[in-house]
Amino acid sequence: MLRMEEIEFEKKKSTIIQAMQTATRSSYYNELFKSTQIDIDNLQTYEEFARIPILTKDTYREHSFDFIIDEIRDRMDIDYIKTLKRAEKKQELKKFDINMISTSGSTGKPLDVIRHKVDEYSDYFVPNLYRKRHLKNIHNQALLWLWPVPRFQQEQYYGTNQGFHKIDNGYKYFLNEYSPETFEKMFQFIIEKQIEWISGFPSALHLFAHYVLAAHPSEPIETVKYIECNSEYLHDYQSETIHKAFCVHPTSIYASNESLFIGRTCSKGHIHVFDKNVFVELIPNEEGVNEVVVTKLTNQKIPLIRYKIGDYAQWSGETCACSEFKSPVLTLKSFRKNDYIVKENGEKIEPLNIIEVMLNLKYSRGLAIQQYQYIQHAFHDFEVQLSSSESMQEADRLVIHSEIVRFLSSLVDNPVTVDIKYTTEALPPDPVSGKFRYFINTVNLRMEV
Fold this sequence. Notes:
This is Capsular polysaccharide biosynthesis protein CapK. It comes from Paenibacillus albidus. The chain is α/β, with parallel strands linked by helices. It contains 14 helices and 21 strands. Helix 11 packs across helix 12 (236-246) and helix 13 runs antiparallel to helix 14 (394-412). The termini are far apart. The model is unreliable at 445-449 (pLDDT under 50).
């Protein structure tokens, strides 16, 4: 019996070969294909394609600029760019229409991903085709994008401490904390602006839906016609609560920063692969667990072939009964799970705020911080596991402890105790999901507003 990868390879063979031919325009893949004797022009079977070594995050991190096609890379001073600080590096890359995005590090160390604008535009085309089916009668300015963001990034990049920022097709609504006051402002904002399309993290939408059901049980938001979840796995209990509050079944996008859009859920709740964007393989690891490996089919400027994104999944053994997709169905076995920093009064704060103090320590003070994990054991009691590339001097440890205590105390509006544990070893991922969690909350509190 043929594997799903073999079936899909035969369907997409010509497109996959075109993606590989594009990849030869980059120094990394040109050298890789030569060293592994991959004959692209005569490629016939999936087994031949599978001889290409799988690209890991560590290799991507080491060679990220070598994936850029030579026509662009030859115009760049790569050695100079590598010396720049993150903010300066981002600005320099924009001169070449390249965006740099930092991942959350959910599978280990945070990763700086580079994407060309041309590739991003091509990648958005496919999910936008499916969105249009739901957005035919939706006003172009009616999007509300719920965006968990640290306060410092909001002020630094958008120059505002207001709750929202106007964008071309609607509004970004900044979520620094999850309180009744914040949710009430969001509720009134949606009514005032006649918001029809909401996009956001499932966890944030779930908490907001709880608030709407509790605070406005007889005031349904009738303008909302489409809800799209992203960045986290959409659980059934979250979907049900969101549907009760808005009378709309939410859909969910499956993506990664490196490969962008991989798939989305249909009306039956199944994740279908965007097979015009990506060729997906599920490759068993040493433990026999299938890891998701992606080849981009649309990238013209920064190709990506057989990249292991860090998720676990399996192919569905059943044919989906939906009429929206004919592509294969994935069942995810690992996904990001976000906890919240909880204040004593029950308010919840987006853990992305932690990034502020850690970026400051790493880049402004030049400390060799590689990974970190915060654990909230009680309202005012935190533990921090910190991995560094070299042993920390006592003076540096005092600075780190002082800054983290100051930051967390201001965040939760109370003095806190912080126990920092240092190591030069990599911090382990969650043993069940395989994802690294940079914040864990063990406070015994129900996640309801």
